[in-house]
Specification:
Layout (H helix, E strand, L loop, with lengths): L5 H10 L1 E4 L5 H16 L4 E2 L7 H7 L3 E4 L7 H21 L5 E9 L5 E4 L9 E8 L12 E5 L8 E5 L6 E5 L4 E4 L6 E9 L2
Antiparallel strand pairs: 1-9, 2-3, 3-4, 4-11, 5-10, 6-9, 6-11, 7-8, 7-10
This protein binds 2-oxoglutaric acid (AKG) and fe (ii) ion (FE2).
Fe (ii) ion (FE2) binds next to loops.
């Protein structure tokens, strides 16, 4: 049993989502946030898209900028992050038989005031996306900073759905079934940083 990964798996099996508060250490959070900022200052980020919409339409839906993390150009800290994700994938495959084969991750930077409206992560009809993973890189995040992840949990038996609110606290990892849980990023009053990705089948 892996004490870091097991609670995430148990959460996914029981509730459709799992949370681990110390997936990254405070030092790892700081190192990755600083590399995110360096890459952002170097002009490597692009406005995130949602398909073939116009930019104005897209900004009304999501306001983050992203940069895909490429193994070939990864810094040692980024490589260490991907390595831990790889170990998690292996663990999921041993315990859940989801048949995960690949993963893809990007940095996301939400400038103050931006958000991502309610959506499902398989919107591009990429049904290979099985699990969505988000890891937050925010040091000293306060309740009043906003920017929470809202998960919409379908209630069984036609009862009304439940909204679950999760703060983007540094080091915290959230994982949920991509095709099942609608979710939303609420507006934040300060810059909000994360690494987001998908664990996929072939
Ligand atoms: O950053 C988050 O909390 C969620 C991001 C998200 O939903 C996405 O990138 O698809
Ligand atoms: Fe999403």
């Amino acid at each position: 049993m892996n004490p870091l990964f097991e609670p995430i798996i148990e959460g996914i099996l029981a509730d459709g989502f799992g949370v681990a508060d110390n997936f990254l250490s405070p030092n790892e959070v700081k190192a990755l946030a600083s590399q995110l900022h360096k890459r952002h200052e170097a002009g490597q980020f692009r406005a995130a898209g949602i398909g073939n919409q116009q930019v104005m339409v897209e900004q009304a839906i999501r306001g983050d900028e992203i940069l895909w993390i490429d193994e070939a150009t990864a810094t040692p800290d980024e490589a260490a992050f991907l390595q831990r994700v790889g170990e998690f994938v292996e663990y999921v495959n041993q315990t859940c038989y989801l048949g995960l084969r690949e993963f893809e991750f990007h940095y996301a930077r939400y400038p103050a005031g931006t958000f991502y409206k309610r959506h499902l992560d398989q919107f591009r009809s990429d049904s290979r996306r099985k699990l969505s993973v988000i890891c937050y890189l925010n040091t000293d995040w306060q309740e009043t900073d906003g920017g929470q992840l809202a998960l919409y949990l379908p209630a069984p038996g036609g009862k009304s759905e439940q909204q679950l609110i999760i703060s983007p606290t540094g080091g915290r990892l959230v994982c949920f079934e991509s095709g099942r849980l609608e979710h939303e990023v609420l507006p934040a009053t300060r810059e909000r940083l994360s690494i987001t990705g998908w664990l996929k089948t072939i």
